[in-house]
Design goal:
mainly alpha, 3 helices, Helix Hairpins, elongated
Length: 69
């Protein structure tokens, strides 16, 4: 998901996407323990996506606080 796409999402949808990515990471780790992983970079990619989502979520929260206060 691109940064511009994330910025258009409301905060609750961003939180949902973060939880979805965390679930995917959990599943990847389980699969890595039991057999060979298809894409070794998938875990790293998911972690970066979570970081991107959380960063934009925090930016939105700070902007909202600034506008209200």
């Amino acid at each position: 998901m691109k940064t511009s796409e994330i910025r258009q999402l409301p905060e609750d949808e961003i939180r949902t996407e973060v939880e979805k990515r965390r679930s995917e990471i959990f599943k990847l780790r389980l699969r890595a323990g039991s057999d060979d992983v298809e894409s070794p970079g998938a875990l790293r990619q998911k972690r970066r996506e979570i970081g991107r989502l959380l960063t934009i979520l925090r930016e939105k929260q700070l902007k909202r606080a600034k506008d209200n206060g």
